[in-house]
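ESCALATION

Customer reports they have been waiting on this structure for their group meeting. Please prioritize. Original submission:
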Amino acid sequence: MQRRFAIIGHLAPSSGKLNLNDLAGGSGRMDVLVRAVNAALFVSHGIRRDTDITLDGISIHVLDAEGDALETLEDNENLGFILSDHLPFSETDNQQIVDFGKISLGEKWLQGHACITIIQHALD
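Update from on-call: job pushed to the front of the queue and completed.
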């Protein structure tokens, strides 16, 4: 089962210089996005072959505490997940994702990379 993840980086710069010595501050919390990509693509001693970072031809789900349980997803779907960085979705984000299904990992706010790890584990 293919999985795809999109993480909305509210503060991450889309162009310009990236300060590798200050990923958490001067680089707009790029550390949050890097941890999310790491959780999506890597396993111990290897790289996942069932995970991509694209969003075409898939069933997209937004991670939301008010969504359906992760266990309700069908096994045969090509799955995509949208999650926010360390900030809640903005009003603009919400307008763009309103038509997608919602999946919940529980009522507590979790860091994005932890959500990805939980999803990968549940789907493995």
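Sent to customer with the following note: Strands lie at 3-8, 42-43, 46-47, 51-52, 59-69, 79-84, 101-104.
Escalation resolved.
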